[in-house]
């Protein structure tokens, strides 16, 4: 059933002005009497047009419905009736489908260019985005926002697309795109066939001529340098991962993101935590997705908050309901979809690392690898091989530690309670510094028995949401069952060690269907991570069943050491060629 505000205006005795499509700005422009211009600007703060006699409305399906309602009261002479009729019909179809999705969510499978399978609730999210192409996907952490966004790109073929992501997630997006998306790799013209990149990562603040690509990735800190370039490229879709990075207006990155989003038809924000502190932050986020969809700042604070300039929302539930009804936001929590989730989910997340730091730290191991073949003594050769692998393992641990910390911050800000596992003390020092604001407690093997007990007590009783534990200290620790996430900042050679670490969060005697534990394995593409990942059976986005839920026996240790030796030899061989980065 068509809502009353979408009833079509067939005839009118009097016109208050004219309506004309403006191609340069992709807007509908009203020129008319003061009464309609004043009414338009008072009711729709999102409409622009300086001075008198002019009001400009962005051409979107949602806004065109509002424009139709305005014309019911103030009829306008439409200068391009066929174009308006097409826009009107799209607006009607959009509203009807939006109502259907709100009342009875249904599922549309992604196109054949999507490789893989979506869970049922992920298909619903994919369907929601297809019908609401400017929206915020606000699912809780671990429900697959990335893969739903990739499915959206596959189904809409919205290329070129721009992905705006935090620095530490660039490599993971590259991995996920390569895994789930089949992209066109060539462009054929009348004169020549040119290779084009599938994915191009934009580097540096200084703009350069971008190669042709299907998907471009840039991180938030670089946006200010590309502010005047990106809007001119003509992106068909923009995905803003962790869009809460834009919760504060007045910054260069906010201005740049706003400008490029305003030129694009498909704008998808991703965030499990779009609000960190005050509810008013949602205005900043939604203003990127659809300009002034919540009115201008003064209007928003006057009506939704406690008065002009206040950023405390009076009725958050009402605001959330409005965003969902309007198709501006979709949010599912783990509790909503538990039937589709296993009790424990293991997720491999590719994470960035400091290539300069790694290159410097690895030089000693590289030198040893180059001279190892000249050593005849078998025991000395074995000792040096272990030294090489240990140094490499520590180098990659240190190099990725700041990025691990950023990932953990993201989880903590989402309200998760975390056990963070690592191995090297140099890595713990980085965590202490980077995560200080969250008051972490540590169980790394250096603490006294009393200090260890105090750390467990503090986490168990909610004095902190972050407990940092050594991989080799996981066995025998009780009282950490309140965690909702396990994060491995470093990896161990033994599958059972990881299993013991995961066991720290198991709810003994509690119905497993009432929660689903997330276990994140944060891996880099260099150093020992890649080799340990192969040894453990870690695959992108899942952890294949080599691990058993058991303690490490002597037989486990022997088998692990035997297999680990084979993989360590691969590391030594790789390092013989040296490691350099630009």
From TrEMBL:
GO molecular function: any one?
Answer: ATP binding
* Keywords noted in UniProt: Hydrolase
Q: Which interval of the chain is the signal sequence? A: none
A GO biological-process term = replication fork processing
All copies of the Helicase ATP-binding domain together span: 126-292
By its UniProt entry, which SUPFAM superfamilies does this protein fall under? P-loop containing nucleoside triphosphate hydrolases
InterPro entries, alphabetized: Helicase_ATP-bd (IPR014001), Helicase_C-like (IPR001650), P-loop_NTPase (IPR027417), SNF2-like_sf (IPR038718), SNF2/RAD54-like_C (IPR049730), SNF2_N (IPR000330)
Keyword Hydrolase listed:
yes
Name the Pfam families on file.
Helicase_C, SNF2-rel_dom
| PANTHER family assigned to the protein according to its UniProt record, in alphabetical order | DNA ANNEALING HELICASE AND ENDONUCLEASE ZRANB3 FAMILY MEMBER, SWI_SNF-RELATED MATRIX-ASSOCIATED ACTIN-DEPENDENT REGULATOR OF CHROMATIN SUBFAMILY A-LIKE PROTEIN 1
Name of the protein: RNA polymerase-associated protein RapA
Record the organism.
Ruminiclostridium hungatei
């Amino acid at each position: 059933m068509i809502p009353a505000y979408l009833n079509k205006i067939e005839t009118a005795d009097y016109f208050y002005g004219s309506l004309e499509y403006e191609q340069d700005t992709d807007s509908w422009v009203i020129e008319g009497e003061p009464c309609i211009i004043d009414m338009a600007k008072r009711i729709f703060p999102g409409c622009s047009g300086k001075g008198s006699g002019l009001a400009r409305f962005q051409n979107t399906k949602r806004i065109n419905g509002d424009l139709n309602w305005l014309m019911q009261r103030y009829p306008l002479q439409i200068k391009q009736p066929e174009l308006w009729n097409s826009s009107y019909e799209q607006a009607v179809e959009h509203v009807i489908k939006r109502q259907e999705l709100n009342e009875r969510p249904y599922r549309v499978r992604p196109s054949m260019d999507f490789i893989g399978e979506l869970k049922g609730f992920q298909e619903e999210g994919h369907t929601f985005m297809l019908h609401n192409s400017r929206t915020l996907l606000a699912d809780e952490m671990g429900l697959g926002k990335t893969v739903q966004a990739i499915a959206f790109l596959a189904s809409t073929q919205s290329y070129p697309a721009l992905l705006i992501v935090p620095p530490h997630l660039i490599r993971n997006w590259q991995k996920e795109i390569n895994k789930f998306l089949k992209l066109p790799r060539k462009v054929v013209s009348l004169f020549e066939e040119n290779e084009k990149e599938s994915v191009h990562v934009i580097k540096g603040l200084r703009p350069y001529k971008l190669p042709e690509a299907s998907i471009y990735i840039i991180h938030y800190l670089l946006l200010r340098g590309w502010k005047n370039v990106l809007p001119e490229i003509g992106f068909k879709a923009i995905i803003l991962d962790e869009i809460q990075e834009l919760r504060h207006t007045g910054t260069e990155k906010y201005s740049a993101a706003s400008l490029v989003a305003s030129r694009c038809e498909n704008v998808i924000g991703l965030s499990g935590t779009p609000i960190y502190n005050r509810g008013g932050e949602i205005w900043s986020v939604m203003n990127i997705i659809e300009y002034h969809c919540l009115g201008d700042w003064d209007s928003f604070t006057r009506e939704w908050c406690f008065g002009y300039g206040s950023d405390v929302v009076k009725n958050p539930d009402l605001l959330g309901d409005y965003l969902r009804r309007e198709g501006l936001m979709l949010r599912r929590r783990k509790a909503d979809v538990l039937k589709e989730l296993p009790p424990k989910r293991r997720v491999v997340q590719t994470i960035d690392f400091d290539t300069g730091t790694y290159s410097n730290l690895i030089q000693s191991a590289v030198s040893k690898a180059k001279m190892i073949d000249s050593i005849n003594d078998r025991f000395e050769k074995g000792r040096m091989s272990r030294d090489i692998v240990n140094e490499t393992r520590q180098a990659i641990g240190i190099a990725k530690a700041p990025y691990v910390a950023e990932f953990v911050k993201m989880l903590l800000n989402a309200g998760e309670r975390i056990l963070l596992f690592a191995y090297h003390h140099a890595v713990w020092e980085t965590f202490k510094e980077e995560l200080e604001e969250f008051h972490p407690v540590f169980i790394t093997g250096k603490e006294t028995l009393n200090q260890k007990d105090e750390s467990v007590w503090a986490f168990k009783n909610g004095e902190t949401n972050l407990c940092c534990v050594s991989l080799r200290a996981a066995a025998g620790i009780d009282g950490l069952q309140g965690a909702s996430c396990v994060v491995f900042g470093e990896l161990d050679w033994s599958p059972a060690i990881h299993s013991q670490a995961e066991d720290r969060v198991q709810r003994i005697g509690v119905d497993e269907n009432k929660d689903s534990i997330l276990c994140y394995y944060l891996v880099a593409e260099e150093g020992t991570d890649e080799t340990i990942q192969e040894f453990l059976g870690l695959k992108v986005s899942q952890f294949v069943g080599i691990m058993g839920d058991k303690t490490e026996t002597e037989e486990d240790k022997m088998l692990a050491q035997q297999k680990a030796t084979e993989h360590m030899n691969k590391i030594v061989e790789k390092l013989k060629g040296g490691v350099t980065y630009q």
